[in-house]
Every structure is written in C-alpha cells, then in structure tokens.
Amino acid sequence: MSGLRQGPLVSAGVLLGVGLGGFVDGIVLHQLLQWHNMLSSILPPDDLVRAKVNMFWDGLFHAFTWLMTAGGLGLLWRAGQRADVPWSTRTLLGALLAGWGLFNTVEGLIDHQLLGVHHVKPGPHALAWDLGFLAFGVLLLVGGGALIRAGREDRTPRGGAATASPPRAPGG
Question: Based on the structure, what is the number of domains in the chain?
Fold first, then answer.
C-alpha cells in the first residue's frame, strides 16, 4: 500500500511525549523528591507565602503538561481513523521518546540555563544535575528519532493487514 503517511502518528506521539515527560518531571522532581519548584531559584519556598506562589506556578506547569497530553490523545485518535497512517509501535514509541526529549531539552535550556528559575537539584552540583538532565533529553531525542526512522519500514495500515480477509460465515 503506497501513500502511507507517518506524520500524523509522529505529531501525536511528540505531543504525548512532551506532556508525559512533563508529568514525570513534575511528579518525580517537584512532588515526590521535592528537589525544586517552578520558581525555586528566584523565590525559594522557605515560608508559606513563597511556597504557595511556587505551588501556583507548579500548577500552571501541570496544566500545560495536561493540555499537551490531551492534545496528543486527540491527534492520536484522529491518526487512528486514517487509512493512510500506518499503525506502527516503533513510530509511536519513537515519537513519545522524542517528545519527552524535546521537553527535557527545551525546559533544561530555558528554565535551568537561560532564565535560571530553578535547577534540577539545587546545591553544590546543580550544574552537573542540569547538564545530566539535558544529556538525558538529547539521548531521548536521538533514540526517538532512530525509532521513528525505523518505523518508516512499517506498512501495516490501521486495522491490521493490508489485504482484506474474506467474510466469515456466521458461527464459523
């Protein structure tokens, strides 16, 4: 079957990856480990008012990640209804990883390095943690890109094999 398009599945996976990668960051680094909040480098949460301000900005961050995830699900739904989009695990997984890597890279460059609003883990080794976060993002981007490229070989259209099966007899 020619004319298959990988783009809709990649777009859905990248948005899902951005959202889910943001959720991992927010849940693990912000909430469970409590290493940082969105503004913790410029407004340390060392009293109740500052903690509430940081919590508000963390909430906006989580709203953003939720919107990315919801948008990705919408695109995935639409891609799944298109006969010209091959249903490829490698493509979708690659796009998810690339989206997560994109999140880490952009968030790490902007929030950690450019604006300095927070660091992955504040303290004497903050730069090392920030660079590790960026390196992990780049690895996710590279690995995701490789899976997306490998998925170009996948030609199974939505719903299974490219050839139609003869109708089955009732009860058979």
Answer: 1
